[in-house]
Amino acid sequence: MSTYAIGDLHGCYNEWMALLDVLSFNPAQDTLWLVGDVVNRGPDSLACLREAEGLGSAVRCVLGNHDFHLLVAARGGGNLKSNPGLQAVLEAPDRERLLDWLQQQPLAVRDGNRLMTHAGLLPQWSLAQTEALAGEVQAALASDQSGAFLSQLYGNHPDRWRDELDGMDRLRCIVNVLTRMRFIDADGRLDFKANQGIDSAPAGFAPWFQFPRDDDPELLFGHWAALEGHAPYARVHVDALDTGCAWGGLLTALNLATGERTSVPSHKSLGAAQ
What we know:
Blueprint: E1 3-6, H1 13-23, E2 31-34, H2 45-54, E3 59-61, H3 65-75, H4 84-91, H5 95-103, E4 109-111, E5 114-116, H6 127-142, H7 146-151, H8 167-180, E6 183-184, E7 190-191, E8 206-207, E9 218-221, E10 237-240, E11 250-255, E12 261-265
Parallel strand pairs: 1-2, 2-3, 5-9, 9-10
Antiparallel strand pairs: 1-11, 4-5, 6-7, 6-8, 11-12
Helix pairs in contact: 6-8
């Protein structure tokens, strides 16, 4: 029995199947942790969603910013950026079942001292607090007002967490931390403009994993393809899993018991990493 954490799929279904074949993955006894962004960018978001949903309890998945993009477009009245892969999801006969599955996924998965989110973890948040805050968003997604929540989700403000935040400001900030964060300042303020490597950090900002914490969790994240699976000068225990498959890089799996990484190459390059 093995558990593997896999980086951003981004619709790269063929590479995902190739990776599972190399791993000899058996859903009857093994488990996959998917770090989010199951859809968008790559050629077959629909197949990735169908596979993930069909694997049932063998998969634990967190929502990424591109997964939210699909939900906002489908159920929040948002505009769908031109992407044939996402359009295929919206036109699929089983779209509602797949969207229901996606909307039910959490923003954080925890197992003891290990935590998986899409983008990372603020140094000011404990693991228990992160679970609780992620649960607030999951409750909003499960409520009768989920469409209204999704319709108001997008925005860069507030750009710093405060415990007294409430309403949509609170929920939006939680989502932005857990699905969009890259660079922060010492007060935990988020920058939303820089999205390349660590050298692109704005003045006064640094990657979130370069700030110390009072505890020592094992953090799994994706989202940041430009890191190519590395977290330079990290001051916390982190595993960066987005190795840029949709951009011509690799799709990577991490064996959570042994720490061994297994990768397969992308079948097609889509351009520069973002």
